[in-house]
Specification:
about 130 residues, two-stranded antiparallel sheet
Length: about 130
């Protein structure tokens, strides 16, 4: 505990108590599970963009992704993207369970994957690969 002397507006002073983190028993918890979820979601978004582009580029992939005829290849794109997301989360969560990962670098990786995935879903982009 530390005392800090604060000067008030009227010229008066007052002593305030400032608590230190050690005194409050604050412990930093590992952020690995949260980072695992964020990166897994970004991998899922990237997979959706990649499958969208591959579906337009190759008729075999287009036919493979056509799980439900009434929906078309969108059913396969979303299904496989969710499967990849869940698989990535299952792999990353135990690997990062008790670790503290640098937040800025993890968010940078996630942002790059999300941006690449979003670009893959834009018609102007995936029409460049159409057969």
């Amino acid at each position: 505990m530390a005392n800090i002397r604060v000067v008030r507006e009227g010229g008066g002073t007052i002593d305030e108590i400032v608590w230190q983190a050690q005194e409050l028993d604050i412990r930093e918890r590992p952020n690995g599970p949260a980072i695992a979820a964020i990166i897994a979601a970004a991998i899922g978004v990237f997979t959706l963009g990649l499958l969208t582009t591959l579906s337009e580029a190759n008729t075999d992939v287009h036919d493979l992704l056509d799980i439900k005829n009434r929906v078309g290849p969108l059913s396969g794109k979303t299904t496989f993207s969710v499967i990849v997301y869940l698989a990535a989360w299952v792999v990353l969560a135990p690997a990062l369970w008790r670790r503290s990962v640098p937040f800025a670098s993890a968010i940078l990786v996630a942002a790059a994957l999300i941006a690449a995935g979003l670009v893959g879903t834009f018609p102007k982009f995936f029409e460049l690969f159409a057969e």
